[in-house]
Amino acid sequence: MREKIRQQIQKAIRGRFDSFAIPDFSVEVPENSEHGDYATNVALVLAKILKKPPMEIAGVLAKELEVGSWKLEVAKPGFINFWLTPETLYKKLGEILKKKEKYGAGSKKKEKIQVEFISANPTGALTIGNGRGAFLGDVLANILSFVGFNVAREYYVNNARTSTQIRELGKTGLGTGTTYLTPELKRIIARFNKKIVVLKKRNHKNREGEAGYLLAQEIQKENKKFIEKTLKIKFDVWLSEESLYQNGWTKKVDNLLQERNAVYKKEGALWLKTSAGGDSEDRVLMRSTGEPTYFYSDLAAHFYKLSRGFQKIIYIWGADHHGHVARTKAALK
């Protein structure tokens, strides 16, 4: 109805005044119900262009807007207030009863939108903060789907063997650390004790990463079951960080950044020129040890998303990720 009122106002302007670019104006629900079901400030906005009193403009437009869907009045200093007629409300009620839960649904659109949410590190059970993001993302995706967009829900699993959190998890599993240690993690470690014993005996340079990856898979499996069975949230894609390395997406990003002269070496590390894109400073992609940072694989994840043809990508991050916003925007530029 609000859009119908807006269209009627625009038609009235074109019919009664000389042609000009119609400026933005509001059609809002008034705070005070005595001022109508809807009210518009269009006459106040046009007064600056037409050099006429707002009340005069509102009066002219009101004559063009007197149709069967509403009753209206002009109110000082130049508002037009609308009251929907009982007939209009009854008609709309009939439409709601007929369409039921499909009432208000939009027509199918071509635009593809991805919503990434939760994406908790597979180092333990989900937190209250993760739960907040879970329902925020799920409801937003439901709304976007309802109005007609082609929506994909994605969960990004930070499980790369080279990542710091996975290696710390592995150290705990191997008995050389205590990070993330909880009764639940002790239970999982005990379940995989035989495989962990084998890893302990291996003189592998990244056995912490291997042990962490093993435990992360089980933690993620339990979190996924909780999300799907208890929270009733279904994801279209569970994107593994490790797969970005295995499938060459990190290398593609590296080549692209090299081609665009967006990286440089300093003190043995590889840096991205994020300050050129609005970030407060440049960021490390590859440490001097040759180990990639979280940001490195994160860029590969962004690049992979863009390659799948989404016109809009929405991220719902936890409060602890506020510092990633500026660097991510800069990198994407």
Summarize the structure.
By secondary structure, the chain is of the alpha/beta class. The protein has helices spanning 2-16, 42-50, 54-65, 86-99, 128-146, 164-174, 183-191, 193-201, 207-230, 241-246, 249-259, 294-307, 324-332, and strands at residues 27-28, 38-40, 70-75, 79-84, 112-116, 150-157, 237-240, 263-266, 269-272, 283-286, 312-315.
SSE topology:
Blueprint: H1 2-16, E1 27-28, E2 38-40, H2 42-50, H3 54-65, E3 70-75, E4 79-84, H4 86-99, E5 112-116, H5 128-146, E6 150-157, H6 164-174, H7 183-191, H8 193-201, H9 207-230, E7 237-240, H10 241-246, H11 249-259, E8 263-266, E9 269-272, E10 283-286, H12 294-307, E11 312-315, H13 324-332
Parallel strand pairs: 5-6, 5-11, 6-7
Antiparallel strand pairs: 1-2, 2-4, 3-4, 8-9, 9-10
Helix pairs in contact: 1-3, 2-3, 6-9, 11-12
Report on the structure:
The chain is of the alpha/beta class and 333 residues long. It has helices at residues 2-16, 42-50, 54-65, 86-99, 128-146, 164-174, 183-191, 193-201, 207-230, 241-246, 249-259, 294-307, 324-332; strands at residues 27-28, 38-40, 70-75, 79-84, 112-116, 150-157, 237-240, 263-266, 269-272, 283-286, 312-315. The strands form three sheets. The protein has a four-stranded antiparallel β-sheet with strand order 1-2-4-3. A four-stranded parallel β-sheet has the order 7-6-5-11, sandwiched between helices. It has a three-stranded antiparallel β-sheet with strand order 8-9-10. Strand 5, helix 5 (128-146) and strand 6 (150-157) form a beta-alpha-beta unit. The longest helix has 24 residues, at 207-230.
